[in-house]
Amino acid sequence: MNLEYLKSFYITVKCNSISKAAKNLHLTQPGLSMQLQNLEKELGVNLLIRSNKGVKLTEEGKVVFDYAHTLLSIQGNIERDLKNLQQDKPKLIMGSCKSVGEYALPCSIYTFKQLHNEVEIHMEVNNSTEVIEKLRKHTINIGIIQFDPKVDDIITQTIVSDELILVGTCCDSPKQISIEELKKIPLILREKNSGTRYLIEKALQKKGIDIKELNVIYDLNSPEAIKSSILAGKGFSFLPKLVIQQELKEHWIQQVIVDDLTIPFDYYVASRKKYTFSQYEQMFVDFIVSSKRGFC
């Protein structure tokens, strides 16, 4: 498949206009149209429906567009990694779940950087599911995640154990509740597809409870935003101990024990199964895994 034609197709869809895409690609409109026709001919399908309002993807076009995004990302990453090899400074490109990436991991990165000042470190913070997808798309090479996906193309190493605990404001939160009472209190949860949400759902399923039975008042995609909501007395939430150590110590929030419900879990270093770490990537992974606490 001609990647130049694939890129022209991808940019055309993003621009929703052949004329705008041609300008973006520094091509004439007839030249771009010829590339699109050649790609359709090569694949044996129609990819676009053209009209005065722009372009619209056919069903076949939707499939090709999704793959185009991945293939072009991989192409860009290949060029980036080859360029990095030619540069003096080695680089670490990683992604982390928010429970670690917004709290403990920056300290570990700082410590590693003090030991290896020659390394450039780039980190993206997303939820665990998004980190796994970025590994698959070769956007990052090291992932720190909150659960083991147990899939064939991703391998994991355990870093450290943690636990999700239910917490509320110290002002009027009960110290202990039953499973039935858990269903009634106002809950603020992490977004769907996050590692925290996955662990909660899995633990509840073992008790025969569907998460829909809970009184979830809203979802947030940030542990920090959830903590702010709890401190404002808006509700309760399950958060990793690692995330709320300071708040518990200062008695700003307190743990609420739920009878017969514990949610232990591990943090993992994740990578693509067929990927071989560079020297400094392996050094960083060893640094994280061998640390007594996993993080600073």
TrEMBL record:
<dbReference type="InterPro" id="IPR000847">
    <property type="entry name" value="LysR_HTH_N"/>
</dbReference>
<keyword id="KW-0805">Transcription regulation</keyword>
<feature type="domain" description="HTH lysR-type">
    <location>
        <begin position="1"/>
        <end position="58"/>
    </location>
</feature>
<keyword id="KW-0238">DNA-binding</keyword>
<protein>
    <submittedName>
        <fullName>DNA-binding transcriptional regulator, LysR family</fullName>
    </submittedName>
</protein>
<dbReference type="InterPro" id="IPR036390">
    <property type="entry name" value="WH_DNA-bd_sf"/>
</dbReference>
<comment type="similarity">
    <text>Belongs to the LysR transcriptional regulatory family.</text>
</comment>
<dbReference type="Pfam" id="PF03466">
    <property type="entry name" value="LysR_substrate"/>
</dbReference>
<dbReference type="GO" id="GO:0000976">
    <property type="term" value="F:transcription cis-regulatory region binding"/>
</dbReference>
<dbReference type="GO" id="GO:0003700">
    <property type="term" value="F:DNA-binding transcription factor activity"/>
</dbReference>
<keyword id="KW-0804">Transcription</keyword>
<dbReference type="InterPro" id="IPR005119">
    <property type="entry name" value="LysR_subst-bd"/>
</dbReference>
<dbReference type="InterPro" id="IPR036388">
    <property type="entry name" value="WH-like_DNA-bd_sf"/>
</dbReference>
<dbReference type="Pfam" id="PF00126">
    <property type="entry name" value="HTH_1"/>
</dbReference>
